[in-house]
């Protein structure tokens, strides 16, 4: 690990030519990605290990990061996935009894290039006004590259629109987690970038959780004899995931209950025949207000999405793909973005946010109970008609 006191140079370069000079944090070198900001004031380890952030350079709006270090219990997946990391004031000491190592040591071990000591509020305001944009962090020797060359490297990097990143974050072989308590049956989870907290929540509801690679076919899904199918969160553009949409349409036609979160919500929208679009700067953080239209309750929720579903906020409408009646079930109160879908003629629903959010908030955790109840009701009807 390199000491924070070494103060190697670093620079953040945005595709519009804006530059922010600071200090190297984590690994040294060059990294490229879409620059986004997360408003969470806690849970940085969960953010870093969320596969949904693959391809993104994450800026923390909370100024002081790293004071609790990192540990082996809280990761959401097998590694850090962010493309790069931006913080204002990294902690020089670790002050938590659960910590195994400092945050910058973990960043360096996983090869995550970061920058510290810049005005993160200024960067956030620029993204909010101009929209998310590509950027690059150049640290150590790379900070000395000619500025025009640095900008050229940034603008030639791929944009997030049109990118399919599921194959980069998904498991390559299936993994099974036993059910806890009264067993309901097998749930086929398509891993598009799943978080461990999701697996644990499904297991606690009585599902034997079969996490399948994102390349799984409908035949492979049916081979585990599932009582339901689940699509996880994940990175990338839903418009670039045609195979996952086709698989989901097969699932819906088969009558299997379905629940999707985050990327899974966008893919349900596309499977139902709806469009998706890129948000100006996305929703990322753990303080997003969402209204559950079924109960009227307002929940504080955790988000990480740069794309959203196009659908009428009010009323019931017909699925353009022929799956019956559909309604928007949840709405974001900051900007009226679709935050959930519910099919009325088939057993399927989804939400755009994270009901499994480790570290909180836990307002939306009831959705796993809603899924369990939907599966139980579907199985009961099937037995009655047998």
From TrEMBL:
Region called CPSase, residue ranges: 1-182
Root EC class: ligase
Membership in a protein family: Belongs to the CarA family.
Residues where L-glutamine binds: 52, 234, 236, 263, 266, 304, 306-307
Taxonomic placement: Bacteria, Bacillati, Actinomycetota, Actinomycetes, Micrococcales
Complex and partners: Composed of two chains; the small (or glutamine) chain promotes the hydrolysis of glutamine to ammonia, which is used by the large (or ammonia) chain to synthesize carbamoyl phosphate. Tetramer of heterodimers (alpha,beta)4.
Catalysed reaction, written as an equation: L-glutamine + H2O = L-glutamate + NH4(+); hydrogencarbonate + L-glutamine + 2 ATP + H2O = carbamoyl phosphate + L-glutamate + 2 ADP + phosphate + 2 H(+)
Superkingdom of source: Bacteria
Active site: 262 (nucleophile), 354, 356
Keyword annotations from UniProtKB, A to Z: Amino-acid biosynthesis, Arginine biosynthesis, ATP-binding, Glutamine amidotransferase, Ligase, Nucleotide-binding, Pyrimidine biosynthesis
Carbamoyl-phosphate synthase small subunit N-terminal domain sequence ranges: 8-138
Source species of the chain: Microbacterium gilvum
Protein name: Carbamoyl phosphate synthase small chain
InterPro entries named among the record's database cross-references: Anth_synth/Amidotransfase, CarbamoylP_synth_ssu, CarbamoylP_synth_ssu_N, CarbP_synth_ssu_N_sf, Class_I_gatase-like, CPSase_GATase1, GATASE
EC number, UniProt record: 6.3.5.5
Pathway membership: Pyrimidine metabolism; UMP biosynthesis via de novo pathway; (S)-dihydroorotate from bicarbonate: step 1/3; Amino-acid biosynthesis; L-arginine biosynthesis; carbamoyl phosphate from bicarbonate: step 1/1
UniProt function note: Small subunit of the glutamine-dependent carbamoyl phosphate synthetase (CPSase). CPSase catalyzes the formation of carbamoyl phosphate from the ammonia moiety of glutamine, carbonate, and phosphate donated by ATP, constituting the first step of 2 biosynthetic pathways, one leading to arginine and/or urea and the other to pyrimidine nucleotides. The small subunit (glutamine amidotransferase) binds and cleaves glutamine to supply the large subunit with the substrate ammonia.
């Amino acid at each position: 690990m390199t000491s924070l006191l070494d103060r190697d140079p670093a620079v953040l370069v945005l595709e519009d030519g804006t530059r922010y000079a600071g200090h190297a944090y984590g690994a040294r070198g060059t990294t490229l990605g879409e620059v986004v900001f997360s408003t969470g004031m806690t849970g940085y380890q969960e953010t870093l290990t969320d596969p949904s952030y693959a391809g993104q350079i994450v800026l923390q709006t909370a100024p002081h990061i790293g004071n609790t270090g990192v540990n082996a219990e809280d990761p959401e997946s097998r590694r850090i996935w962010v493309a790069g990391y931006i913080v204002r004031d990294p902690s020089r000491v670790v002050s938590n009894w659960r910590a195994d190592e400092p945050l910058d040591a973990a960043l360096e071990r996983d090869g995550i290039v970061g920058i510290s000591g810049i005005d993160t509020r200024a960067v956030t305001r620029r993204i909010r006004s101009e929209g998310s944009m590509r950027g690059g962090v150049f640290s150590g020797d790379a900070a000395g590259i000619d500025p025009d060359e640095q900008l050229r490297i940034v603008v030639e990097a791929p944009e997030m629109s049109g990118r399919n990143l599921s194959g980069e974050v998904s498991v390559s072989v299936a993994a099974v987690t036993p059910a806890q308590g009264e067993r309901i049956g097998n749930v086929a989870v398509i891993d598009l970038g799943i978080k461990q907290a999701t697996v644990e929540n499904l297991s606690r509801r009585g599902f034997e959780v079969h996490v399948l690679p994102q390349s799984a076919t409908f035949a492979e899904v049916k081979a585990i004899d599932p009582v339901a199918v689940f699509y996880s969160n994940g990175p990338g553009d839903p418009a670039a995931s045609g195979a996952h949409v086709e698989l989901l349409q097969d699932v819906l036609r088969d009558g299997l209950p379905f629940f999707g979160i985050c990327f899974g919500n966008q893919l349900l929208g596309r499977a139902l025949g709806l469009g998706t679009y890129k948000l100006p700067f996305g929703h990322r953080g753990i303080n997003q207000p969402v209204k559950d239209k079924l109960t009227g309750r307002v929940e504080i929720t955790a988000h990480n999405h740069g794309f959203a579903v196009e659908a009428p906020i009010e009323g019931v409408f017909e699925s353009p793909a022929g799956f019956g009646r559909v309604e928007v079930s949840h709405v974001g109160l900051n900007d009226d973005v679709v935050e959930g879908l519910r099919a009325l003629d088939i057993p399927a629903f989804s939400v755009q946010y994270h009901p499994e959010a480790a570290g909180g908030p836990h307002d939306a955790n009831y959705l796993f109970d809603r899924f369990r109840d939907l599966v139980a009701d579907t199985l009961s009807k099937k037995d009655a008609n047998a």
